[in-house]
Amino acid sequence: MSNDIFSRLHRKMTLTYSLIFGVVSMLVVGSIIVLNAWSLLGIEKNELYDKIVHEGEEWVSSKEAPVNEKELNTGDMLAYFVTTDGKTVILDQLGVGNAGKSILSKRQEWPRLEEKTKLLVMKDNDGNKYHYLAGVAEIKDGNKSIGILYMFENF
Fold first, then answer.
1. How many other C-beta atoms lie within 10 A of the C-beta of residue 69?
2. What is 97-136 written as a DSSP string?
3. What is the C-alpha separation between 92 and 100, in angstroms, rounded?
4. Pick from 2, 13, 31, 95: CA 20 to 30 A from residue 129's CA?
């Protein structure tokens, strides 16, 4: 009889400890995944901002469009360049697809200059969901401000 009690106690303790170990393991693995994702997002944000600055410098020196035709057609990268006051469009490279239309319709959610980058999650009228990493930088020619360049990377 006492052997039966110890056997049940042993099974109960084994199950309890296994459950605790499983939960702790899942928390550790989940934390590692979240930290890695956060770190990668930070790297992507920095790279996007650097690309915007570089493309702005190219625009100033050669008037070369920030996004090439292939990226524009696939929607992998989009751009929108406006005057500093935001009233005059210098270059619209949002394309003709639903993603570009969705981005333009969410203009109030675009990052501000002090934010530099922001992750945008949008849906179009057909229910398609889009994730774009958006970035912004002021483009200058020497000390003269040319405009504000927004770039959107499919994420």
1. 9
2. SHHHHHHHHTGGGSPPTTT-EEEEEEE-TT--EEEEEEEE
3. 10
4. 31
Answer yes or no: are the C-beta atoms of 36 and 115 closer than 8 Å: no
- pTM tops 0.85: no
pLDDT in tens, the chain (155 residues): 567 888 888 899 999 999 999 999 999 999 999 999 888 888 888 899 999 999 998 888 888 888 888 888 888 899 999 998 888 888 888 877 788 888 888 888 899 988 899 988 887 777 888 889 999 999 988 889 889 999 999 88
- 127 contacts 98 by C-beta, under 8 angstroms: no
Chain centre to alpha carbon of residue 18: 38
Evaluated on CA atoms 24, 28, 33, 37, the torsion sign reads positive
Location of structure tokens 């056997």: 7
- Percent of the chain as helix, strand, coil, to the nearest 5: 50, 25, 25
The residue ranges of DSSP E strands in the chain, in sequence order, are 77-82, 89-93, 117-123, 129-141, 144-154
